[in-house]
Amino acid sequence: MRYALFLGCTIPARALDYELSARSVLKTLGIEVVDLDFGCCGFPIEAVDEGKALALAAGNLALAEEQGLDVLTLCNACTEMLSKAVLALRDERRLSRVNRVLRERLGWEYHGGVRVRHLARVLYEEYGLDRIREAVNRPLKGLKVAVHYGCHYMRPSRVYGEFDDPEFPQSLDRLVEATGAESVNYEYKMACCGAGILNFDEEVAVEMARMKLDPLSRRGVDALVVICPFCGIMYSRYQSLILREGGEIPVIYYPQLLGLALGLEPDELGFQLNVAGVEGLLEKVGV
Amino acid sequence: MRSEMVERESLVEVGNLDHRFPDRILRQPGGEALRACFQCGLCTASCPISLIDSRYSPRRVIKRILLGMRDQVLRDRFIWLCSACFLCQERCPQDVRPPEVMTVLKNMAVKEGILPQGIARMMEVFKRTGRLYPIDDFTAEEREELGLPHLEEEQEAVKRLLEE
Questions:
Q1: How far is Cα A147 from Cα A153, in angstroms, rounded to an integer?
Q2: Which of A2, A54, A81, A261 is the most buried (most CB within 10 A)?
Q3: Cα first-last separation, chain A
Q4: Cβ separation of B85 and A59 shorter than 8 Å?
Q5: Where do the structural domains in chain A lie, given as residue ranges?
Q6: Is-contact A235 A249, C-beta < 8 A?
Q7: Quick one: CATH architecture of A2-118?
Q8: Coil, strand or helix: which one is A4?
Q9: A71 phi and psi, to 5 degrees?
Q10: Considering only CB atoms, which chain B residues are within 8 Å of A196?
């Protein structure tokens, strides 16, 4: 298994714990990733100029295509934008319009056929739960975590097809269980984190995040497990604003959890960078 | 005050309607199914923003588009508040895609000079550096300490694609 690793803008600048743990886990599992000179996926400027967003996405797809590689993403927003672009560029007219821009400005061209897959999807669909269970050498028995999928991981379903249910997804729960930890059911499990509107209305965004985090803070879980840097930043860096009554929930990325189960050290998984206290969690795991 | 404002905003003035407005949106990718909307309201019932502030309603935005209330629609804060969670899109019995319609509307608003401050600030950094978050010295150092690959501070290909 060999992929082009797509980090996007947010992860390499603001979610280094996610990047580090993803790289460590992929290496341990023997999934090879290649770093290409990828740029922004296009998602952030979709609201301003959809055409330019599509060109940005297509440029990245062209880079991967040139190397004959499929794309492995870590961010839900990048996943959605790039997957949507793959779909949109099946339309000959849109493809040739975008290619004209790519050729003129960069000398690049995209022909189609690149697949885009989120890390969690690759682990679930391609690597497989059985192989993950076999690789686990420090089962996380007794750990209770809440999973947060993030909307763009499986929606819109017209982009993702039948991969996971758009309203009641399962893959991340199963991936957590493969580590030996328990994925608890909880109120507002499917609520949107609100990060998508953070730079338009912080108050509403924080209110949206509160809807999930406030009841969850009284639930007594060991961690909230996320697979998108926007959700991760929203629930961790804004946590003190969200939880007005105090309390603390460690927010960790799935590869951080999986890495612990694979026997990796906290430092290899970026736990030293986590905002909300992870000491209790690590103590429970015994590292 | 606020309720008066909302009321005036809600008035349908026949003389001000732009009957070509719905067609302009229908022609954009994502807007195709607009006319199929039968106003069931499942979108608004599913909307997490509506739950926080009931003034915001995707159903109303769609109805206003269909009526040709161009100015009110493009000036509506709601189009920028849509968090694109896509719940309404999954549930719509008529396959209307409200979040994609919001994107079309936002693009139109921008062309008319309506650009919220936070997004204008983001665009400024983005155009200048080709990144949403430029890799500054502090980040570059942190990356090096963690053994993560070096990244250029700015992204040239993105900058070139963003030029007017």
A1: 13
A2: A81
A3: 30
A4: no
A5: 2-118, 138-285
A6: yes
A7: Up-down Bundle (1.20)
A8: strand
A9: -105, 130
A10: 83-85
